[in-house]
Amino acid sequence: MKSKPDSFDRQAPEIASLRRELEELRLAKNGLKESEERLKSVVSRSPIPAFVISKDHRILYWNKALAQLTKIRAEDVIGTSQQWRAFYGKKRPCMADLLVSRAQEKISKWYTGKYTKSKLLDEAYEAIDFFPELGHQGKWLRFTAAIIRNESGELIGAIETLEDITRRKKAKEALLRAHKELEERVQERTAELAQANEALLTELMERHRTQKALKQTTDHLSLLLESLPIISYTRKANENFGITFVSSTIEEITGYPPRCFIEEENFWTDHIHPDDRPRILDELKAGQAKGTHRYSYRFRVMDDSYRWFSDYWRVVQLPAGSTNYIVGAWQDVTEDKRIRQEGELRLQQMIQTHKLTALGEVVAGVAHEINNPVSFIAYNVPILEEIWSAVETILSRSSARHPDWEKRGLSFEEVCRNMQEIIQAFKIGANRISRVVTSLKEFSRSDETAQKKLMSVPEVIAGALVIVGAQIRRTVSKIEQDIADDVLPVSGQFQKIEQVIANLLINAHQAIPAGRKGLITIRCRYIERLKAVVVDIEDNGKGIDRKIMDQIFDPFFTTRRDRDGTGLGLSISYGLIREHHGLISVLSRPGRGSRFSLYLPVDGETDISLYPAILCIDHNVKYLKELKANFVDAVIWRSEAQDKPEDILQFLIEHPEVDLIVSEVRLKGFTGWALLEKIHAKFPLLPVILYSADRKALVAPPQAKALPDYTLHKPFSIDKLQKIIHDVGRQQL
């Protein structure tokens, strides 16, 4: 009997565990029951028709709204799988059945073209269909079926909701019918209007035929005008000469549409070249008589270049009281002008070549004729010197105190000194004539077929000075030469480069006005980064007007036409430098002088790519970056305490493309005024702009020897600086 309690004690924990499991199962069932009750409550109270089926397709819930819609009571179908009875005449799956069966792929079979996957609910599908079994005439329903899962994610059933959209469908159909009726009425009314207009159309047919014939004629005429390489126009023959018509060909040639000429009164006049405008307007006003008139002028097109127009026009006289019109045609003759100018250039070059050839022969002959007596003089001068030496010794012994010296107002010492000076002058003159004769022979020698060979640019400069030195010294008081010692030889043709330098020297001396103390500076240096020798020829003459800077290298362009200028010198020089793959640039300041620079690659073959640049100097890196962002050609120099003005001068020597300096006054190593003085002494034509936030710093110190071109008080606008740079002008490179 005592063993029983022991057995019970051993089983007690197991019994307690079993009780807990039973209690948890009871609670789970109660929870499930509560969940089912909540689901039942939600479904039954919902105004939306709905039913719920279990995973074995039996109906769990059938709410009142659905019972009213289908006329089937809930108690008649709950617990059965006859949900199809409410919607179909024979047994078939509803959408909820397909979801419970996991047969989503069959939805397309039963609801072809009527369903879509729900965008709001996962594992749900929507459809619209007509159910003829519902009601007396059937109903249109929108229905949605979705899977129901428990907390563990297991499928436990499905719910399907339905919405009666029959009224909406019927309203839409009624609207479509009304729309159709309206269209029919409109068509009927249109037919009536068509009948009413038929008589009017008949009346207009004759007029239409006339207009058609006129249009065909006009179209043919327009086509003819558009196909011709001319621009037809009409304008009023009054004091304003307003343009009333321009053919569309104008846009192809100028880039401007016809409306610009018609709507803007002065558009045509404003785009005529300023040099041609007075002449054209005078001829237009004077040519109101009968007959055809013709003139040519330059017209500015959209890209700001100029095209040559040939203008033919005549006045059309209208009856008294009406405004007369000018009918005319413009023709673009730019290419004709270019071809004619090229022909004239070739002719002039041919004439020049013949002249130079003939001149070379004459020079060679003259040089030969001069060389003989010069050789005689050069040969006899040493003999004369030797004879005089002997005579001087004899005279010094016997005749130093001869009474005839005093009678003639001479002294023995004066005669000896004069005789020595005369003999020395003979020597110098004979040597100079020999050098000139040699240079003339070299200059007149034809070398068109000569091969390029290494040449010394300083020797080329010296040769050019021998040829034109005497001529330019007539107006030039001083010729300064700054020739570096490390200038490398250049591959090229000696005579051609000599011709270019001689021509630039002559131009420099001709640019110096009468009465001015002329100065020509010649610089020559080798620049390693360019692999080129650079020659500067700078004068302090009258400079070049900015308006003609773009034309100075054009053939036949000259400002000395009245003094036998041909306009070929710079054009030929440009061509000769390009033959050597070099560059020629010009920096000019009106009233202060000009600087022409030659860039000659040492190998004579590598093209030099170089563009004008602005040197910006400041200690403020942020401001330098701002300047760099606004000026793509800016080169920045950050000022440091160890900097000296000579460092920047050396930079300018090595970077001849810099044509403008923009600098802060208060630099770290020195002031902008000190830098300005150094720059002005070495490069007097380089423009300098000084700026500072301190107004006092912009006032020139008492000892200042140079003044900047402009001063700017910070902060200043970039637009203002751009305008100043535009006014100063840039180097043409």
Question: How is the secondary structure organized here?
Answer:
Blueprint (H helix, E strand, L loop, with lengths): L2 H43 L4 E5 L4 E4 L1 H7 L3 H4 L17 H6 L6 H4 L4 E3 L6 E8 L7 E11 L5 E10 L1 H62 L3 E6 L6 E4 L2 H6 L3 H6 L3 H4 L6 H10 L6 E8 L5 E11 L8 E8 L1 H65 L4 H5 L4 H33 L8 E3 L1 H16 L3 E8 L6 E3 L1 H17 L7 E10 L4 E8 L29 H11 L3 E7 L3 E9 L11 E6 L2 H10 L3 E5 L6 H10 L3 E7 L7 H11 L5 E5 L17 E4 L4 H11 L5
Parallel strand pairs: 13-15, 19-20, 19-21, 21-22, 22-23
Antiparallel strand pairs: 1-2, 1-6, 3-4, 4-5, 5-6, 7-8, 7-11, 9-10, 10-11, 12-14, 15-16, 16-18, 17-18
Helix pairs in contact: 11-13, 14-15, 15-16, 18-19
Strand order within the widest sheet?
2-1-6-5-4-3
Main β sheet profile? 6 strands, antiparallel
Portion in beta strands: 15-25%
What name is given to the CATH topology of the largest domain?
A: Heat Shock Protein 90
CATH architecture of the largest domain: 2-Layer Sandwich
Distance between the termini: 128 Å
Low-pLDDT parts are 1-11
The number of helical runs is 20
Give the CATH superfamily of the largest domain: Histidine kinase-like ATPase, C-terminal domain
Shape descriptor reads elongated
Fraction of residues in helices? 40-55%
Q: What's the level 1 CATH class of the largest domain?
A: Alpha Beta
Number of domains: 5
